[in-house]
Specification:
Elements: E1 3-9, E2 13-20, E3 25-33, E4 40-46, E5 52-56, H1 61-73, E6 86-93, E7 104-105, H2 108-116, H3 125-138, E8 144-148, H4 158-161, H5 167-173, H6 182-196, E9 204-209, E10 215-220, E11 223-227, H7 250-258, H8 262-271, H9 274-279, H10 285-293, H11 297-321, E12 326-330, H12 331-336, H13 338-345, E13 367-368, E14 377-380, H14 385-399
Parallel strand pairs: 1-6, 6-8, 9-12, 12-14
Antiparallel strand pairs: 1-2, 2-3, 3-4, 4-5, 7-8, 9-10, 10-11, 13-14
Helix pairs in contact: 1-3, 10-11, 11-13
Organism: Tepidanaerobacter acetatoxydans (strain DSM 21804 / JCM 16047 / Re1)
Function: Catalyzes the formation of acetyl phosphate from acetate and ATP. Can also catalyze the reverse reaction.
Binding site for Mg(2+): 8, 385
Length: 400
């Protein structure tokens, strides 16, 4: 039985899922959080067994990987008899720059390239690298694969990914738009083609990965030709705590007025802005919807800004594709918020989008929420980035 372990490391967390690739079922999944803080936590959820929670000091990702493996091997709550049952490990890596147009087996040379990418992904790649290094140390004989958020968007044409900056900055520092959430956009676009019973090579669709981090992609004939995120995941639509698109001149203006250093400004734009900064309530859209219902005008403003900006991206992407067959909602908000889907799709009949409010009352499962006569279908498709990572990992390991 081919078993693939998928690991997704954040700065203070480690998410994991163990797949049986024979039927693509999840044998166990879990989360190690608060790594490096005084008290950490492991939450382990094995299939058909009771979940467990363990509090302990988890000083680093190496300890987190050991806790994960111990949980998978536990005689009462584990799903493995021996560590040798793990055939391969797939790692989510946020930024592969222009170096990787697809997933790759992890070697020392690949690790060197990932470290080179830290300069353009300082918030995301370091924890990914730390997690890979910890897993390689704990599982030295298990093949490992890196799956990149940016890889799916390497098909964007140059005129789409270049900025209006001197060309030398691209040549010297690779300053360009990369796009993110590629694994999610790739997965849901393939699922959408199945739902529509049409070859993906014939479709023009817009996929909306809406969550605390949000990105929107134009997919023409199965290839990404545009994504709302850019050089980093800060660009694009307003998000939970990220500002999204703003006039660049605002940055030095605020730095001077508030006396903020470049590092602190970067943190400010990523963690203090977005709908959280607008509302003053929360970055969680469930909280915003509840506050807006109770008359909170700033929460209502944040929701309207989010839906308005999403609508602008949909319109512009339909224009660059010269048509539209479907839009796909995914991510925590896209899959679960009927309110936000309705706000985004309102008054979009000119693009052929018209959703049925009864069908729209769906959460977390595949659904066509369009009226029968709608020319452009509106679909809800739960993303499964972990399965995509597992499939890519299995494919590379089998062909090695």
């Amino acid at each position: 039985m081919l078993k693939v372990l998928v690991i997704n490391c954040g700065s203070s967390s480690l998410k994991y899922q163990l797949f049986n690739m024979k039927d693509q079922s999840v044998l166990a999944k879990g989360l190690v959080e608060r790594i490096g803080l005084e008290v950490g936590m492991l939450k382990h959820m094995p299939y058909c067994k009771d979940k467990i929670e363990v509090s302990d000091n988890i000083p680093n990702h190496k300890v987190a990987v050991k806790m994960m493996l111990d949980a998978l091997l536990d005689k009462n709550h584990g799903v493995l008899k021996d560590i040798s049952e793990i055939s391969a490990v797939g790692h989510r890596v946020v930024h592969g720059a222009e170096k990787f147009s697809g997933s790759v087996k992890i070697t020392d040379e690949v690790m060197d390239v990932l470290k080179e990418c830290v300069a353009i992904a300082p918030l995301h790649n370091p924890p990914n690298i730390v997690g890979i290094e910890a897993a390689r140390e704990m599982l030295p004989d298990v093949p490992m694969v890196g799956v990149f958020d940016t890889a799916f968007h390497q098909t964007m044409p140059q005129y789409a990914y270049m900025y209006g900056l001197p060309y030398e900055l691209y040549e010297k520092y690779a300053v360009r738009r990369y796009g993110f959430h590629g694994t999610s956009h790739c997965f849901v676009s393939a699922e959408a083609a199945k739902m529509l019973n049409r070859p993906i090579e014939e479709l023009k669709m817009i996929t909306l990965h809406l969550g605390n981090g949000s990105s929107i992609t134009a997919i023409k004939n199965g290839k990404s030709i545009e994504n709302s995120m850019g050089f980093t995941p800060l660009e694009g639509i307003i998000m939970g705590t990220r500002c999204g698109n703003i006039d660049p001149a605002i940055v030095p203006f605020i730095m001077e007025k508030e006396g903020i250093s470049p590092d602190k400004m970067n943190e400010y734009l990523n963690k203090k802005c977005g709908v959280y900064g607008i509302s003053g309530v929360s970055s969680d859209f469930r909280d915003l919807e509840e506050a807006a219902k109770n008359g909170n005008k700033r929460a209502d403003l944040a929701l309207k800004m989010f839906s308005y900006q999403a609508k602008k991206f949909i319109g512009s992407y339909a224009a660059i594709m010269n048509g539209l067959d479907a839009i796909v909602f995914t991510g925590g908000i896209g899959e679960n918020s009927a309110t936000m889907r309705q706000m985004i799709c309102k008054d979009m009949e000119y693009l052929g989008i018209k959703i049925d409010e009864a069908k729209n009352q769906v959460r977390g499962k595949q659904a066509d929420i369009s009226f029968e006569e709608a020319k452009a279908k509106a679909l809800v498709i739960p993303t499964n980035e972990e399965l995509m990572i597992a499939l890519d990992t299995m494919s590379l390991v089998k062909t090695a």
